[in-house]
Fold each of these.
Amino acid sequence: MSELKKLVLIVDDDQDYLEQMKLQVELFGFDTITASSRSEGEKMLSTTRPDLAIFDLMMETQDSGFVLAYKAKKMYPDMPVIIATAATAETGITFKVETEEDKNWIKADLYLEKGIRGDQLHREINKLLKI
Amino acid sequence: MEKLKVLIVDDEPGIRSGIERILRNYTIGFPFLDEDFSYEMIEAATGEEALDIINKGHVDIILLDNKLPGIQGIEVLEEVNKMKLDAAVMMITSYASLDIAVKATNFGAFNFVPKPFTPQELKAAIESISKHLFLKRMTKRMNKEGKQIRFQFLSVLSHELKSPLNAIEGYLKIMQDKQVGDSIDDYMAMIDRSLIRIKGMRGLIMDLLDLTKLESGKKNRELKKIDLAEIARLAIHTIEPLAIQRNVKVHFDSDEDMIFTADTEEIEIIFNNLLSNAVKYNKENGEIHFNIKKKSTAIVIKVEDTGIGISEENLSRLFQEFTRIKTDKTRDISGSGLGLSIMKKLVVLYGGTVDVQSTPDIGTTFTVTLPL
């Protein structure tokens, strides 16, 4: 019997980005579920526990991704969370989740720039899933 | 009550206590202010002492005698000017020569009260200097807030412009790597989505141009008598292809002779915005009732749709720039988030108002009132 595929939740309000991310993650060999808003993402998390989650930062509000990550970590502290955003290039504000202090308030394991290459993304996901 | 700190710099104790007495219980209010101003006095007998007080704490108004025992008033003023203090200076001086007066003005003195002065003269001078100070501070704050808003606008704008580029780039990369197949047919959905995103971006740029022209006030306005009903019919004609696609019926009703003095292009933008929203946010097979009525003091334009409606919570954010109400029902509808903001700005140019009434799942009615 083959090993069960890992499940990745992707939440993004840009339907094209969502579609592309889904395609890419499925090509890596994972199963996916998707949601297009913070509230929809929360609903999914209440019934399903994915193995990893990827959230867009700016959805309903500019910090929806943070809020969602916070709630997700409260439900499933061990589930790795990636926040993907294009914010850095736009605002000049960089976020990194490296220090312990950062981890306290940004409840994400990794902060990714949108537009990252597929192989990089694959590597990061594998690292978080300890594959 | 806002207390302004007044520093009195004069070597004559009688003058200092005199000013203290006059201003102690004096308050002034301005019609545009919620709060009245009152005054708290600090006294200094020399210029050196005055500079010491200024260095230690904040003062709002400085009443400055020129003839002082040590450094002269004009030198104190020069120092104050160098410090770029957020304070206003008024010279109190008995022998203001033209030379000193010119110098003082150059160093930023607000005005002069010649000694001796009556309580009434002092109060009048204090009133004007308080108003000046308040307005100066207000302007500074508004400029700062303006810059802040500008920055927010630009960062949201760049997000809105980059999202479609990212989406199209993503699809092109997938095609480049032939990720889902070797035939062009495997990528048709991606090509369609890319074209939709390009169209959305073009719309955003057009809206942005309208907004920029409006905000800079450089839009060439050509005000003349125009027939609103005629422009309305044109707008309906423009929206027809989209309405047919969604099978939405547009009913138009207008009195004859809807003559109004306006800029044709601006009215077109208003009508196009109202109609395209009514089509976009309508249901399949929905209807639109578009009426123009002439009342005694105004023209009332009503666009009523049978669409998805807007919740009360979202109504309040409707006219903000780049606000797009994001719900499951609006997800697939494209828009720049600028249309209503532009429309409202235009209506305001005519002294008009925009009202919205909406019931979720029943429909929305926009009412534009243009005073005659």
Amino acid sequence: MAKRPLGLGKASKAKKQKKPIEEKEESIEVGSTEDQAGEGELTVELKEEADADDELAQLQALWNTYFESDRDNELVLNGIVHECDRLLRNSNEKAADESKEGKEEEDDDSLPDFFYAIYALSLAELSNFHPDEVESYFKESLDRIEIGLEKYSESRVLWFAESKILLLKLSLQHVSQLTIDTEEEHGQHMELENILDEAYLSFGAALVSCKMNNDYSLINRETYEFFEILDDLLDIINNFGKHNKEEDDEEEDDDEDDDTELDELHPLSPILEDFKYNQWLKDKLIEFSDFFVKFKYDKTSPEDVSLYRDMSKRIGQWYLREAEIPIKVYTTLTYDDEFEGIEEYEGLTVNEAQSKGQNSLKLALDALKQAQDEDDPETWVAVAECMISLGNLYQLDCKDQEFYYKSAEEILIKANISTNGKYDDILENLLDN
Amino acid sequence: MTKRQEETQDSNGPSSKKLNINFNKEEIKSFFNQKIFDETFQDNLQTEIKESQPYRWGHFTELVDDTLLRQVRTEVLHEIAFTKKETDIYKVFQSGDLANLSGLNWDDLSKLPSLYKLRSAIYSQQFRDIVSKVCGCGKLSGVKTDMSINVYNKGCHLLTHDDVIDTRRVSFILYMPEPDKVWHERYGGSLRLFDSIVPNVPQTDFYQKFTPQFNQMAFFTVQPGLSFHDVEEVREDRKRLSIQGWFHIPQPGEDGFIEGEEESIIGKSTLQLLQSKELQEFDFPKLIKNEFDEIEIKHYEEFENVGQFTKLDIDYLSKFINKNYLNNESLIKNLSESFLNESILELKEFLNEDYASTLRELIRHEELNVKIPIKVDEISQPWKCAIPPHKHRFLYIDGKSNNMDITSAESINFTNSIGPQELPNFSQVKSEKEVDNKLIELSRFLKSIVFKKWLKLITNLVLVGDQVLIRRFRPGSDFILATKQTEDLLLEATLNLTPSAINPKNWESGEFGGYELCMSSGGGDGEDDEENDEEDDPAIYRSNGDDSVLFTNQCQWNSLTLVLRDSSVLKFIKYVSINAKGSRWDISCQWNIQQDDDEEEDEEEEEV
């Protein structure tokens, strides 16, 4: 008679009895299957095929695996950095040997540009695990970029990496140290602006280089992350100090304004006021997205579809933000009795506001439609909300307004079906008005 | 728990502390809204409660002096740390070491003077008399105090229970969401009261909903087997702060104390009743396995290896199963070994790609386009709703006809003891919907002989009886509380078919529930432990810590989990959050297995 299993509870008990007491010491080994795991080693399963004899391909695959993970494993990062150290050491030894033998130096291409980019990005990522040593990690990281650029002065991969690292440095090393009460000292804001400008410069140069060389291979999720980090950073700067109030903040209704403003002496104040950053970001995002759609987008690839939707959503949000002031001006001048007879508000007449607002919202609507995922009602509702805002910018009960309201209503009804009425209040609001 | 006499309002115990702990009648009165001392107000409330449904309950509005309650709220938010607690029955943030305010020490009280005033007021003779009068419930103890502070944040909930624990006589909840703001019904967090089919068996749908506002107190007499209620999940990112407490029956030495009353109440504990056989009559679906006949069992006994499959067998299996699980002998061998060692096995991408993608589209289409039936009368055949809701609630198809009425004691009695009986037969179950028919087709496959032969390959087990259920756990509604099986050993399979789990982020964190969790009950029968531990908690089961968790299975798409479950394993399916991206869908199978006499004896000897 064949052996039979014990049952889950008993099997677990039996296992506990057998389990050795001492903890295993973990180390990392680059490998492509779990079978390679030896005693005390952590094996990272690579998400892609890599030539087992090609150390650099293995390194790239390991970095990609880390990038696509939750990025919460310091051990993997350490593994990448150790591997980079080793490869660099080997390369230097080889160069030294060749130099001794009187051969000409040929190490310029022994380690490619992406090696330095991975090295630098890994060090920058490590700063997340060592909040007290952030400065030194970023210094080391940018050093690697510098060394790489000395060898490959026109490297797009290094420019893209540098732009991201600079933004992370700005966020983790500088902005995180500021409080609402920090006052400007010794040109601090200049330093912050310089870092931001440098990041823009590198990213811009990389994009131009893609275009000049007709090489769009780096237009991908990893380089797109620049926009996510920058958007988050600008968001932090825009909302700086607004969440520092006591206790009940989280209970504030969404529609309540928060009047906290940065003191003009605050080092972030000049960045906040400088519209160029926002405008630049929008322009580059659209350019990046265009490159992606024209040269990279594979509609059958789930990763590509997901990236395209993310980009479209972000573009849509930018246009929505752009429409905020025109919407405010239009509704105030049209419906607020206190503004009766006043022709201009925030530098706009009612007609200018209406036309500007409609333009921005139409562009937002186009982008948000592209971002729709038939599996995710939230993305449909974003379209519906944009339609309602657009409808609001037309004359009461006119055909266009009716069209946008009706379309929004249909979407919200469908979204409510699949979400147990999550958007009932928006729908009720629309129907009431 | 030992209560300290000097903490109570009437105490004269040693008190050299600075904080004023003795309040006179006028002071106590000043802590309340004066309207509650008005006789007419009390009489009206008494009448209201007498006529209330589904059982005697009532509420005060603006109960406490407004300034005092605002101060209490501020103190609580500033001085008390809350930690998340989650079991099969609730998710809530509770005040850590201050969970039971009776246990406060003087240092704590110095930081919480308003809270102390409030507690003194609530347990004062004046207020107890009012509650006792309007509820008509008899005298209440001023010595045995029992209060805790809870925060229900987004996702927090407390499933249906009747509060019958220890000597509780009246339950109350004083609500403290943000003052000056309306707590809208759409935020969730309402108190919902359930009527009962018969005592100890609550109805599936709630009868009454109370959406709380700042400074309101809801209360009801704790009635064994009747006072069923739950706290609806909080849907939005808001804090619903409340003080939950109980008035107990008078203790020795107090006015109204009755010798032997405590013992008689404790005897009626819901915990004891939950497992009783009479009440299991009201459980649907009934966990009854259908025994196979000898000829069928022989098929399994004689089946030993892949080579015994005929071409027809393989053709039929291939229509459903991923070919890797059929053709790859070394994989099958590995799986079998793994199951032998672990008694658990997870097979990803179990259904073949074609079948899975069609099924996924159909299920997802249903989710996105058809409103989920929530109330019992919205559910249409072939789906049924599992009852009673203090044990489980989910939709299911069991392969039996749909003319079964389980809405009243009489109809349940007819179904169980009078009317025609039938065995499940998925071939006879018809639906207008393609998605239902696809799921039914799959269930028929899971009941096929050749599938059970394939199971023999993987598990080495001869199956002798089965039950197959197609299940849907709806967001904001469904769950199964922890239960143990009666059989020594059962083979269970859960074919997880949650289409929204294609995106792992939708479920992986566990935040939205829906996961299946097996835990060890510690070897014994566990009932005594539960009883002793649950003095102050309405929860029926609670996690014993990480060590006891045997495995957790998040919602997934197209994954088959096989478990050989022994009687020490408790299992539950966590309540699915209303904010989940879809329902949990699965097909649950249970099989009785052929016991081998020799082996049983061997095992017994080993244990000895």
